[in-house]
Design a protein that fits this description.
Keywords: Membrane, Transmembrane, Transmembrane helix. By secondary structure, the chain is of the alpha+beta class. The chain has helices at about 40-45, 45-55, 70-75, 130-140, 145-150, 220-225, 255-275, 340-364, and strands at about 20, 25-30, 35, 75-80, 85-90, 95-100, 105, 120, 155-190, 190-215, 235-240, 250, 285-315, 315-325, 330. The protein starts with 17 loop residues before the first strand and ends with a helix.
Length: about 375
Amino acid sequence: MANNALTNFQCPNCNGPLTFDPGSQKLKCGNCGSAFAPAEIEEHYDKQVALSIEEGQKEYSAEDTLQWSEEDAQNLRAYNCPSCGAQLIADKNTAATSCPYCGNPTIVPAQFSGALKPDYVIPFKMNKDEAIKKLSDFYSGKPLLPNAFKERNHIEEIKGVYVPFWLYDGTADVDMAFRGTISHSHREGDYTVTVTENYSILRQGTVQFNRVPADGSSKMPDEFMDAIEPYNYNEMIPFEMGYMTGYLADRYDVTAEQDRNRVNTRMRTSSADKIRETIKGYHTLFPRRSNIYIREDKVHYAFLPVWMLTTKWQGKTYIFAMNGQTGKMIGDDLPIDTGKSVLYFFGILLISMILIGILLFVVF
């Protein structure tokens, strides 16, 4: 038996489905074209949202999960679509999705209530067409990509996802020591004498960090989420559920504490790099001591926009991720055309030989 923990936002003018539009930064009606601010629509549906939250917080009964295995009962939820009444089966962490039967966007308000409510959201600025174009541009920058991959390859799936992120504030107290050398060479008769001067270099200081991100979703590949940074946090705004409509979203299933070690490592690495940047003028630099202590501060919970694109080629799946705010793209290693790579190698070799020949001709 499904429950009624889902809700959707419908146009107050014609009851058509509302979807967030990145271009206008408003919720648009697919039927009459009306546009509304997310806060305005959420306020309009306050009572409906409250009832959905109350329903979503109820415990599942034995009747609800009788037909499921024990594992399914722990990880899946059954809902009634508020538009067409069809039964939807979703992951227990699903926060926003769409009905596979009527296509209307649906939201699970209970996933955004209480301690689960995000502090902030960065709305999508790039729409689906822009994501597809970015992928095409990504292909064009790969000269060794097979032509058939570019011409016949079709996107299997593209989805806009609000990914849960933890944003960490903190301070790194740094105490580092190095041995630096400067070498001088001069001639003494038939010999070249090199004098090496050794210096002891000490550095102490603090490095302040604000909003260092780490995704809180086990479904998202961490290396992709790291690679599409940075986000412009100046455009981050207080969370409103209306921004979710028309997109997918999961609440976090990796806690802030579980992500903490990964973030502290990033802070330590960045602090060490910053300190090294202050040391200039030495020919060689050898680390002697590195003590970096992280003082933890606030942690913010935010939803950040990501376009996920999937394509297949010769039986292999390729996954790409794009920052839904800035358009920065990253993806799996692409196939290489063997013939192109051979021509490319010999082309570079030929050009190098010509340049060397010209240089030798000029010198001699």
